[in-house]
């Protein structure tokens, strides 16, 4: 999957509301962070708790430009939880942590502006 980080990129093709509903985006809390030195681009390994319904999942995130690993513990993030797992080097990423590009194209995490229960689904 190739993700476009160019804010000037053309709008994606129109989809139906049912297609949107097929993407399961949930909120979770980062409970562990490890360096990922073997990744091609600088990244961190995240462990995210999505609550009882989904549980704890792993994600590789290219967020090292804007975030220190130690500051991420306890932070809520949004992620797509129903993509198939994706092998990234020796690491199996189970969810896609979501973010937006800043002015330099580095990831800024997408999260609720106030604390919500883990596992809540975006609507």
Molecular structure report:
- By secondary structure, this protein is mainly β.
- It has a single domain (19-109), classed as OB fold (Dihydrolipoamide Acetyltransferase, E2P), CATH 2.40.50.
- It has two helices and nine strands.
- The chain has helices at 17-22, 69-72, and strands spanning 25-35, 44-49, 56-61, 76-80, 86-88, 91-93, 96-97, 99-101, 107-109.
- Strands 3-2-1-4-7 form a five-stranded antiparallel β-sheet. It has a two-stranded antiparallel ribbon with strand order 5-6.
- Strand 5 (86-88) and strand 6 form a beta hairpin.
- The two termini are 23 Å apart.
- The mean pLDDT is 92.
Short description:
With 123 residues, the chain is mostly beta strands. The chain has helices at 17-22, 69-72; strands at residues 25-35, 44-49, 56-61, 76-80, 86-88, 91-93, 96-97, 99-101, 107-109. Helix content is 8%, strand content 34%.
Instruction: Decide which structural class fits the backbone.
Output: mainly beta
In the CATH scheme, the class would be Mainly Beta
Largest sheet: 5 strands, antiparallel
What number of structural domains do the residues give? 1
Stretches with pLDDT under 50, minimum 5 residues: none
**Tally the helices: what do you get?**
2
The helix fraction, in percent, is under 10%
- Please, what is the average pLDDT? 92
| Major β-sheet strand ordering | 3-2-1-4-7
The arrangement of helices and strands along the chain is: HEEEHEEEEEE
């Amino acid at each position: 999957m190739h993700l476009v980080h160019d804010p000037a990129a053309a709008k994606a093709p129109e989809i139906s509301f049912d297609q949107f509903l097929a993407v399961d985006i949930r909120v979770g809390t980062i409970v562990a962070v490890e360096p990922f030195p073997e990744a091609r681009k600088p990244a961190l390994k995240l462990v995210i708790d999505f609550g009882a319904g989904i549980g704890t999942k792993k994600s590789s995130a290219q967020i090292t430009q804007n975030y220190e690993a130690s500051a991420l513990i306890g932070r809520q993030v949004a992620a797509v939880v129903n993509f198939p797992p994706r092998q990234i080097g020796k690491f199996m990423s189970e969810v896609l942590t979501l973010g937006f590009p800043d002015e330099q194209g580095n990831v800024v995490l997408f999260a609720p502006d106030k604390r919500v229960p883990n596992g809540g689904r975006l609507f």
